[in-house]
Write a structure and sequence with these properties.
Elements lengths: L1 E7 L3 H9 L4 E4 L7 H5 L6 E4 L7 E2 L6 H7 L2 H10 L4 E3 L4 E4 L4 H14 L2 E3 L3 E7 L4 E7 L2 E12 L14 H8 L8 E3 L3 E2 L12 E8 L2 E9 L3 E3 L1 H7 L8 E4 L6 H12 L4 H5 L5 H8 L13 H12 L1 E3 L3 E2 L7 E3 L20 E3 L7 E2 L4 H15 L5
Parallel strand pairs: 1-2, 1-10, 2-7, 10-20
Antiparallel strand pairs: 3-6, 4-21, 5-6, 8-9, 9-10, 11-19, 12-15, 12-18, 13-14, 13-16, 14-15, 16-17
């Protein structure tokens, strides 16, 4: 089989690239259906991009790398594509855009685009013996109907990272990069819950509260969820991408610094009430019980001086703890690290030392925030590879 472009990985980036690459395109994936991570994302409604997507919302060894691709294919370009296909969407919070009906609509749109472009999709298939040739690349395609020798002018690796291995995620992209002499940065789980070996939060598992969670000098204001294993929720997932093993995280249960004034006002009217009862007007009662084991919350509100109130509020704004670890790739939404951006062209995503070899999407050392940013990187990096210089 001779093709212009062979793409390995039929996820968000792979399908987007295949639909726009031009020429004869072969798309290979080991799964029974394409876009499986799209299907399960956003609670089945796919948080397909973010209104506020910009380079500052991404982690990478080179923070400037993402600028070119994001500028040339923006969130509004993808929204326009979604609109053209009649997919209804809505903003949920913080600029997060979701399908009104189902994530399957995004998959159907990409499949329609690929069908129109004449993409040859091979599912339940995998590639081995990938090698460089004088004119491009050669590989062996293993599929339900047997083995096929494939030659391609261009090879695009879009197999993602290691997150969610139960869906078949592996380090395939890193192996290909290494085989061609490209450096790969250290990888670890990102957008992932924290764990504590002492199960300290098990008694209040399921309790959620608005909070500011910080790690590595960066903090996020969103919901925090206490779990049997540790901490989760959007604020925690966001902070996890900035956390290093053994370092502390900071939880601020009073991010808007309103608690001190509120409790002082309550003291004037309800001073005879138990302090924990009044604190429970601002924090979940189960959390207040948990805090009672850490701080002296005894007495009536009238017994609390301004200094005592301030000391407690300060403590709740600077609750530091050291997680034992994270839940790892099993539940991580993304993989931090990947193919070193120094080895790739930011304009085309092509390897600088291997003409015709491209890496796109999560396989690259680019990780976005929670909330549609990683999908936008998939769309933008895919279009950079498909358009820059042309893959045909």
């Amino acid at each position: 089989m001779q093709v212009d472009t062979a793409i390995i990985g039929a996820g968000a980036a792979g399908m987007m690239c295949a639909a726009h690459a031009g020429g004869k395109v072969l798309l290979i994936d080991h799964a029974k259906a394409p876009g499986e991570k799209i299907r399960i994302s956003g609670g089945g409604r796919c948080n397909f991009t973010n209104m506020y997507c910009d380079p500052g919302s991404f982690l990478s060894g080179n923070p400037h790398f993402v600028k070119s691709a994001l500028a040339r294919y923006t969130q509004w370009d993808f929204v326009e594509l979604v609109d053209q296909h009649g997919i209804k969407w809505h903003e949920k919070t913080l600029g997060q855009l979701f399908c009104d009906v189902s994530a399957k609509e995004i998959i159907a749109m990409l499949r329609a685009l690929m069908q129109k472009a004449g993409v040859d999709l091979h599912l339940q298939s995998h590639a081995t013996d990938i090698r460089k040739t004088v004119s491009g690349f050669a590989l062996t395609l293993h599929g339900p109907e047997g083995d096929t020798s494939v030659t391609a002018n261009n090879l695009v690796i879009a197999t993602g990272g290691k997150s969610i291995p139960k869906m078949g995620a592996t380090g395939f992209a890193y192996d290909v990069a290494a085989a061609f002499g490209l450096p790969v940065t250290e990888t670890r789980a990102g957008l992932v819950p924290f764990t504590f070996t002492d199960a300290r939060f098990a008694p209040i598992s399921g309790t959620a509260v608005p909070a500011r969670v910080g790690a590595g000098g960066t903090s996020f204001d969103e919901a925090l969820l206490f779990t049997h294993r540790g901490l989760s929720g959007p604020a925690v997932l966001q902070a996890s991408s900035y956390w290093q093993d053994g370092a502390p995280i900071t939880v601020n249960l009073d991010p808007h610094t309103a608690l001190f004034d509120a409790l002082r006002d309550q003291r004037q009217n309800y001073g005879r009430r138990n302090f924990t009862t009044e604190l429970s007007a601002h924090l979940p009662s189960r959390l207040v019980d948990h805090l009672g084991a850490m701080h002296d919350l005894t007495g009536n509100l009238a017994d609390w001086s301004d200094a005592r109130l301030m000391a407690l509020c300060d403590a709740l704004q600077n609750w530091q703890m050291v997680p034992s670890g994270t839940e790892g790739y099993r539940t991580a939404e993304v993989t931090l690290g990947g193919v070193d951006t120094d080895a790739l062209s930011s304009k085309s995503m092509m390897a600088k030392t291997v003409p015709g070899l491209y890496f796109i999407g999560e396989a690259v050392d680019v990780t976005g925030w929670l909330g549609g940013y990683n999908f936008q990187w998939a769309w933008s990096s895919a279009m950079a590879a498909a358009r820059a210089g042309g893959l045909t």
